[in-house]
């Protein structure tokens, strides 16, 4: 069976956590995999609780699904232990021995770098410093070296590839978005890793032949926590208040109010190309006028209708994705699924 992948089509904060959690419940995957660092949080509203996850896969919501952290994961052990307790997913968790432990020296180095914290807009978790040490081949601690994680450590590539050979279904949850990719993003205002589907597969120990559906997640607008270009940036304080409150546009790791701008068609089209997106997942449609889907209405008017029309240009890019999911509220199942 193939591996379905969830990627961010913009600058992160698109709602990948909700989309991943929804798919985990509806598709009943055998494995939910996450890669990346704790500098990006995924939020899931489930059973009247809000889960902000910086490391654990959002697929924890399906109690049958095994949870996996690949070699491309960067872990702050204290944070992960809290998430294991919060989600109750410890008995289903497997960690690659080569996942990197972010140490206090990494966090301190990053927070002490005025350029990174100011001009670049780092959230100061230490991910960038840990990635730099890995690239420089400096001494690092890995998951296999952390006594508190020893019981979770297992050969992830062997586990996943054997499971795929037996027909297991898998979901791979990426982090951040294409605009933040160190390869394809708006350099220098990017993260320290590539954030596209092909890299996520490699970080999980999976080859490209197993890629299945690729869900590119978009909002009808773009947001950014740190510095960098935001096309059509919103300045109206009343409108911004709506996005920061009803839209919950506050950084889940940094706590900063997100900057808001217009939907960038060219960024969206490029995200489809680079990720080979086969499905589009649209979130926050409820912030647009004419998109009241909460009563079961399956048509759009006004602002929402115009936005859905613009998506036709996104879908015109190879491999010609279809709109598959539309999220119209914070709840896990506030989703319209299009066949």
Overview of the molecule:
The protein has 339 residues and is α/β, with parallel strands linked by helices. It has one domain (3-337): 3-Layer(aba) Sandwich (Adenylosuccinate Synthetase, Chain A, domain 1), CATH 3.40.440.10. It has 10 helices and 14 strands. α3 (104-111) crosses α5 and α9 (265-275) crosses α10 (302-315). The longest helix is centred in the C-terminal third of the chain and has 14 residues, at 302-315.
Query: Under the CATH scheme, which architecture would be assigned?
Result: 3-Layer(aba) Sandwich
Terminal CA distance? 20 Å
Radius of gyration: 19 Å
Helix content: 25-40%
Number of strands: 14
Question: What would CATH call the class?
Answer: Alpha Beta
Label the overall shape.
globular
Strand percentage, roughly?
A: 15-25%
Give the SSE string: EHEEEEHEEHHHHEHEEHEHEHEE
Alpha-beta classification: alpha/beta
Output the CATH topology. Answer: Adenylosuccinate Synthetase, Chain A, domain 1
Low-confidence stretches: none
Number of domains: 1
Mean pLDDT: 92
**Major sheet, described briefly?**
10 strands, mixed
CATH superfamily: Adenylosuccinate Synthetase, subunit A, domain 1
């Amino acid at each position: 069976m193939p591996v379905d992948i969830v990627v961010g089509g913009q600058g992160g904060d698109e709602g990948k956590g909700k989309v991943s959690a929804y798919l985990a419940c509806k598709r009943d995957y055998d494995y939910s995999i996450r890669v990346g660092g704790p500098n990006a949080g995924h939020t899931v509203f489930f059973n009247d609780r809000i889960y902000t996850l910086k490391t654990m896969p959002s697929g924890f919501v399906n109690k049958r699904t095994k949870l996996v952290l690949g070699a491309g994961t960067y872990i702050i052990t204290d944070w992960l232990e809290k998430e294991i307790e919060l989600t109750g997913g410890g008995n289903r968790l497997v960690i690659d021995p080569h996942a990197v432990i972010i140490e206090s020296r990494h966090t301190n180095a990053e927070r002490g770098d005025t350029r990174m914290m100011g001009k670049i807009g780092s959230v100061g978790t230490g991910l960038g410093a840990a990635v730099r040490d890995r690239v420089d081949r400096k001494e690092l601690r890995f998951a296999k070296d952390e006594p508190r994680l020893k019981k979770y450590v297992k050969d992830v590539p062997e586990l996943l590839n054997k499971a795929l050979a037996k027909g297991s279904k898998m979901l791979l949850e990426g982090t951040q978005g294409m605009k933040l990719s160190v390869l394809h993003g708006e350099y220098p205002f990017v993260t320290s890793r590539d954030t596209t589907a092909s890299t996520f597969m490699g970080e999980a120990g999976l080859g490209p032949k197993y890629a299945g559906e690729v869900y590119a997640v978009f909002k009808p607008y773009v947001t950014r926590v740190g510095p960098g270009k935001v096309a059509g940036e919103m300045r109206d304080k009343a409108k911004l208040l709506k996005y920061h409150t009803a839209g919950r546009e506050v950084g889940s790791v940094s706590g900063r109010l997100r900057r808001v701008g217009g939907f960038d068609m060219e960024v969206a089209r490029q995200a489809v190309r680079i990720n080979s997106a086969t499905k589009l997942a649209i979130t926050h449609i409820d912030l647009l006028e004419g998109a009241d889907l909460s009563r079961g209405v399956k048509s759009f008017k006004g602002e929402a209708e115009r936005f859905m029309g613009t998506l036709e240009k996104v879908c015109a890019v190879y491999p010609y994705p279809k709109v598959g999911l539309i999220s119209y509220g914070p709840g896990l199942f506030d989703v319209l699924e299009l066949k």
